[in-house]
Design goal:
Elements (H helix, E strand, L loop, with lengths): L2 H24 L7 H7 L1 H11 L8 H8 L7 H38 L7 H30 L7 H9 L3 H23 L4 H24 L4 H27 L2 H8 L12 H8 L12 H28 L5 H27 L7 H4 L7 H31 L4
């Protein structure tokens, strides 16, 4: 699929995602109405408001207080309050533009390298959906400095404030990205379906593969090319999964995580980076079994293993699913695979914790998507490592296979 054909579903999906998130953010002020607390309840209303507020244009409380409580119209406090409102509006504008740009760029690459045809539809849908969550995280991150400044205390513990803001807004984006991903994949199937061309291209690819097989058979007598590709893909998947395991089992170990979080050099606005580093490096948190049941500890560690299994299986299949296993394509798809494994593990935890939380659906899904910044960081590193391993291992085995036996 050409970039021009892939741009149509990517742009449409980005616009749909933008519209859904904006609609959700515009609904946040309605939760302040008395009827909302009567129907949803005070805890549920507070939870929903926390989900929607990061995408709402409603000005922060500091701006309203500066404009109303300290002197009224025409005073210095009122002017400062208007400045805060403008900063908040600017932050939201940057956030929405960044959401659209990041989603379109990622979806364009995914649809180009992972077209939803010939058994790739499910993989493309999951990749675009998880990338939508990543795009939301990046959008919140980019706009966070303006949002911090709109609170009136931007120079106070800047990095911890940045960490808190990055962790918000994922629930709305997760739901909206699923709808946008379905629309993107459906449009990609329509725009990518050209009568005759796909069939001819498939035949040409098959002919090229047959020619390569004939050449290798002539050099070696027998051709184990599929086995060679399988071995290279498995090695690349193992290397990439090892990077994820480093974050999940080493950095996320409680003493190590505490040491990372306690980093607090005194360098002005960039002091106390521990919270921010922990959020972008750690995929979870665990410790050796304490006074709790040993079986429960093993159960949660098994969930962590499921995360790694999802990542390994995804990386193992990526070389065969991608039209071309380039470094950018492997990096982005590995990020999506890591986010997918994270969501699967959190879904299992949600099922296990359902009884203890009393079946409250809002409390159950409150932690859904936590760890996306770390999945982005570790996924990029794992994807680059897997792509380089795949290229090196594939090249070495190809050279070895081409060497005639003595």
């Amino acid at each position: 699929m050409t970039y021009r054909r892939a741009a149509i579903p990517a742009l449409a999906g980005g616009l749909l995602l933008l519209a859904l998130v904006w609609w959700a953010g515009a609904s946040a002020p309605a939760l302040d109405l008395p009827g909302a607390t009567n129907i949803i309840g005070i805890p549920g209303t507070g939870e929903l408001k926390g989900w929607l507020t990061p995408w709402s244009y409603d000005p922060p409380a500091s701006a309203r207080l500066g404009n109303e409580a300290f002197g009224g119209a025409g005073s210095t406090a009122a002017i400062d309050g208007l400045d805060y409102v403008e900063l908040h509006t600017t932050a939201q504008q940057i956030r929405y533009v960044a959401l659209f740009v990041f989603f379109v760029v990622g979806a364009l690459l995914l649809i180009r390298r992972l077209p939803p045809v010939k058994g790739r539809t499910t993989a493309a849908l999951l990749a675009v959906w998880t990338w939508g969550l990543v795009a939301g995280t990046l959008a919140v991150t980019v706009s966070a400095p303006w949002m911090i400044a709109s609170g009136g205390h931007g120079s106070f513990r800047f990095l911890p404030q940045l960490s808190n803001i990055i962790a918000t807004g994922r629930e709305v984006v997760l739901a909206a990205a699923l709808v946008a991903a379905v629309a993107t994949v459906l449009l990609a199937r329509i725009t990518g379906a050209e009568p005759g061309r796909g069939r001819r291209r498939g035949q040409e690819q098959e002919q090229e593969q047959e020619q390569e097989q004939d050449q290798r058979r002539g050099q070696q007598g027998q051709m184990p090319q599929q086995a060679v590709l399988v071995r290279a893909a498995r090695l690349a998947a193992t290397v990439g999964t090892a990077v994820i395991a480093l974050s999940l089992f080493v950095l996320s170990y409680t003493p190590v995580a505490a040491a990372i979080q306690s980093i607090s050099p005194r360098i002005g606005m960039v002091s106390e980076p521990g919270d921010l580093l922990r959020q972008w490096l750690l995929l979870g948190g665990w410790d050796w079994p304490g006074s709790g049941p040993l079986g429960e500890w093993f159960l949660y560690r098994a969930i962590d293993v499921v995360l790694l299994a999802v990542v390994w299986w995804s990386l193992r299949r990526l070389p065969g699913l991608l039209t071309r296993a380039t470094v950018p394509a492997m990096a982005v798809t590995t990020v999506c695979a890591t986010v997918l494994g994270l969501l699967v593990s959190q879904l299992l935890r949600m099922v296990i914790n359902g009884a203890s939380l009393g079946g409250d659906p809002l409390r159950l899904v409150a932690g859904f998507g936590v760890g996306t910044p770390a999945a982005l960081t570790c996924g990029l590193v794992a994807g680059v490592a897997a792509a380089l391993t795949l290229r090196i291992a594939g090249g070495r085995t190809a050279v070895a296979d081409a060497t005639p036996p003595a």
